[in-house]
Amino acid sequence: MENLVTNLDILDKNSEEACETVKTTPDQNTGKGRKLYIESYGCQMNFSDSEIVASILHNEGFDTTSEIEKADLIFLNTCSIREKAEQTVRHRLMHIHGLKKHKPELLVGVLGCMAERLKSKFLEEEKIVDLVAGPDAYRDLPKLIGQVDEGQKAINTFLSRDETYADISPVRLNSNGVTAFVSIMRGCDNMCTFCVVPFTRGRERSRNPQSIVAEAQDLFDKGFKEVTLLGQNVDSYKWSPEENNKMWLEKKGISNTVTFAMLLEMVAQISPSLRVRFSTSHPKDITDDVLYTIAKYENICKYVHLPIQSGSSRILEMMNRGYTREWYLGKIQRIKEILGDDCGISSDMIIGFCTETEEEHQETLSLMDIVQFDFAYMFYYSERPGTLAEKKYKDDIDLPTKTRRLDEVIKKQRAHALQSNLKDVGKVYTVLIEGFSKRSTNDLQGRTTTNKVIVFPKGNHEKGEYVDVFVKECTGGTLIGEVVNKAVNN
Ligand code: SAH
Ligand code: SF4
Ligand code: F3S
């Protein structure tokens, strides 16, 4: 996998962090077929899906390319989570329109959540699009491409109740060879009123644990040192043994349903030098069992991403999140009791949801003061067509108020992140080296178990190694340190 292309961060002006990013495929030269260029937007699950798409098409003889100009097929794997994510795709299609003028045979496909949301409307609205495929229709891509080759437009947006692509071995795109994502479930059965995901990704279904463990083992055998288990709500992972893998589970001493805590343990047992992370946890569903499993294994990272969304119980109720401010604070308390004060905690927040008062906004700020998140993704509310909130409530907080409140939240979060990093100065952390730092090839970077990025002089160390790093100083976003010794878990 040579010629890796740097990620282009599409900066969301209104959030501290870029949340919609684009990745392009690296070159693969089987020399057999047409060249596919694929760009992914949105969450990590979409990026993982692009690896499944690349795998399906690779098996059909398609090559991948990192250069859009060289492509015979351009796929955009899209996101619908906020209006801005969709606008980004529309702009990108305008650019692709320009390319198609010079290369009329170019096949343009739209995949992912926006494809699912808009379905055939996409073909009507965007004339240059030849193919539309929803997240559960990727096995059908070769057939859909065939239809386009015969001069038709092609579409499949059926959502499945059981598709998990469990048997497909993803082609790792843009991989650093050290860390990888493993999808453990698809869809979401929660109906948060603001959220488009249940409509674009369909019903929740868990992937066979045997295939998850096999994928993680295979990654480890190939030299990867960290896997992140992915799902919209990992705590509701649930797998009931069927005849065909009963024996496999029985060998592991399991005869009943596999829960997320059990899955986490199975993956952690692959090797003490394979780090395990997971995302996303849901405050209403995260169990003590999961927390005790994290505590039990050194190689399960001491970090929980636990989106709060709002600090006001009334707003949380309107969002249908299934917990209150107090419940959330109780969960934070449990995390600290079981995993210690040092455990990394991050969050997502939606600012300016329908009817949010100034006092309720203050409740979000005060909750932040209590929890002191190490990191947060912050967004102002973006109404999504078809969601429960769009049907039931008025998007009545004006844009200047939303952006002002968001600015206040971002400022507070920046201060908390800096405070949290300052607390780490003087400590030693075991770090998994992921590669060179963004700024210099004299420095390496990796992450602590608590998910903080740390940069340090290279010395004679290499990516994929664990090192113990003394934290000398920090900025709001990064720790800066130096290696004290090679860590024991190499
Ligand atoms: N499954 C995860 C979140 C997935 S979406 C969870 O339940 O926490 C990622 C984040 O996008 C959400 O946590 C939320 O903060 C944000 N988001 C979702 N819908 C949004 C909307 N309509 N407007 C603004 N932000 C939104
Ligand atoms: Fe959306 Fe809620 Fe499901 Fe997360 S849990 S994906 S916010 S519906
Ligand atoms: Fe976006 Fe779909 Fe993920 S809407 S956040 S790509 S599940």
TrEMBL record:
Q: Which organism is it from?
A: Chryseotalea sanaruensis
Report whether Ubl conjugation shows up as a keyword of the record. Answer: no
Function in brief = Catalyzes the methylthiolation of N6-(dimethylallyl)adenosine (i(6)A), leading to the formation of 2-methylthio-N6-(dimethylallyl)adenosine (ms(2)i(6)A) at position 37 in tRNAs that read codons beginning with uridine.
Q: Which reaction does it catalyse?
A: N(6)-dimethylallyladenosine(37) in tRNA + (sulfur carrier)-SH + AH2 + 2 S-adenosyl-L-methionine = 2-methylsulfanyl-N(6)-dimethylallyladenosine(37) in tRNA + (sulfur carrier)-H + 5'-deoxyadenosine + L-methionine + A + S-adenosyl-L-homocysteine + 2 H(+)
Name used for this protein in its record: tRNA-2-methylthio-N(6)-dimethylallyladenosine synthase
Keyword entries, A-Z:
4Fe-4S, Cytoplasm, Iron, Iron-sulfur, Metal-binding, S-adenosyl-L-methionine, Transferase, tRNA processing
Q: Where in the cell is it found?
A: Cytoplasm
Instruction: Write out the residues that bind [4Fe-4S] cluster 1.
Output: 43, 79, 113
Q: Output a single Gene Ontology CC term carried by this record.
A: cytosol
PANTHER family (alphabetical): CDK5 REGULATORY SUBUNIT-ASSOCIATED PROTEIN 1, MITOCHONDRIAL TRNA METHYLTHIOTRANSFERASE CDK5RAP1
Q: What positions does the entry give for [4Fe-4S] cluster 2 binding?
A: 188, 192, 195
